[in-house]
Amino acid sequence: MNKLNWFAIVITAAVIIQACGRNANTDDTSLVDSVTVVKNTPGHQRFEAEKVDADFIGEAIRFNRMGLELGEIARRQGIHKRIKTFGMVLIADQSKLNKKIKALSLIKNIAVPAEPEASGSVILSQLSKKSGADFDRAYISIINNEYKKEIPIFEAAEKNCADKDIKSFAMKTMPMLKAHLEAINAISYSMK
């Protein structure tokens, strides 16, 4: 290698070492990209998401799990063809969403709730006991109620979350949520 290349490598290495050394010696707690940096030991950092961000991700995961279950139940037990089709669309969309939420929670170091919400389990249990037209009507009602609760949560996250990636996730998910609500309302109307 010629002298100019060696010089460039040495300068680059020196800049990197200097930059790393400067970060290791700071002891202050600061905000970095809307994520709180908490020092555990000198030279080591742990990132904690803002509470509003973590709460939203937890809610989105619970909703996603419920959506996957509801999609599966519709696919298995729905009588009306449009209910079964909606269930398959719900499974596909919620599966994609599940991957995004898990990746985001991992990147942002947000704990994922291990268990489904108790109220969701009760709803799923009651719904699974129904059959025929009773199932389809109850399913439409549950989906409608779930989305009417969830859409405002995503709208609030879009406005209130501190992390720009989480805000972006909420914003990009909204069209899908609204499309699902419109679809279930159209199915309901067609079944009257």
UniProtKB/TrEMBL annotation:
It holds the Pfam family DUF4142. Residues 53-186 form the DUF4142 domain. InterPro entries: DUF4142, Ferritin-like. Transmembrane segments: none annotated. It comes from the Bacteria. Gene3D superfamilies: 1.20.1260.10. PANTHER family: BLR2558 PROTEIN. This is DUF4142 domain-containing protein. It comes from Mucilaginibacter xinganensis.
